Amino acid sequence: TQDVYQIVDGTKVPYHFNAETVRSALNYEAQPDDIFIVSFPKSGTTWIENVVFGLLNDGKAFDDDMGYYLSQTPYAERFGQNSIMGMVRPGSIKMHVPFNYIPHHPKAKYVCIIRNPKDVCVSFYHFVREIPLYAHFNAKFNTFFEDFIHGNTPYGDYFEHLRSICDHKDDTNVLLISYEQMQVDLTGVVLKVAEFLNINQNKEVLEKILEHASFTYMKQKFDKAHNTCHAQKSDKSQTFSFPLTFVRTGVAGNWSSQMNDEQVQLLDQKMADFMREIPGLNELLWPKAKL
Ligand code: A3P
């Protein structure tokens, strides 16, 4: 097998990213009005990003102008510090490195989204298979599973990442939400994020945000617009350009079709151990969800 990540300043990032670009993002000096979206890949990042975008734009849909959307929601590790400096403000900065690597400012806000590891693992598997350079994963789910539980994927070990976020769950400038919570009560999550970001919204705006964040809407509009825009923007300085699916099945419990009993047990056990260490986390993040 080949490594599918590289280590930049001590943290694992996709190996096809430019190391200097990644480093520039890690060295960005956070500003008091920054909003960071923090997540392990495939945890619902794009979903919460769209909610934040809607809140910052009076309910405007991302597909009205995808170029604008992308310039307001830069992916820091991929596009570097320049993409943050040139960002339309107020915007949100997406980062996947563990929390302790994210630029910190006591007044900046951090919206963290987490998702149960079984669905993350399956979603990640399908995602990396779309990346030509990850030929290694074109093999079998079992191969990917081994890499996932050993932290041998971009952004490293899921549980270490989760811990890095949970260590900050009580910080006043940190909001912790879960993918499963969004599925159970999207309205509640949107209101929570609005309050956290001090954004006034009204019924009309809220309805628009809910529509634009629905799975059907995003599946239909987001990936197409996102990929078209990405393809248009690509130039010779980019090392890759290919369509990626950010909106796939969008359900909780999709893991059951992919994992065998042993794999399920292993991740369930790890998660149960983790939950024991962080009292209250289950109630906070998965109040009604069946994982
Ligand atoms: P699946 O692969 O399980 O379908 P990220 O944005 O962090 O890469 O996460 C992608 C995951 O979020 C994918 O999970 C995708 O389908 C899901 N997702 C994106 N938008 C969604 C929505 N509006 N409703 C439900 N799930 C959504």
From TrEMBL:
**Signal peptide location:** none
Q: Which family does it belong to?
A: Belongs to the sulfotransferase 1 family.
Keywords, A to Z, come to:
Transferase
Protein's organism: Rotaria socialis
- The name this protein carries in UniProt is Sulfotransferase domain-containing protein
What InterPro entries does the database record attribute to this sequence?
P-loop_NTPase, Sulfotransferase_dom
Q: Which Pfam families match?
A: Sulfotransfer_1
Q: For the Sulfotransferase domain, which residue ranges apply? A: 32-275
**Which SUPFAM superfamilies does this entry report, sorted A to Z?**
P-loop containing nucleoside triphosphate hydrolases
Molecular-function annotations in GO: sulfotransferase activity
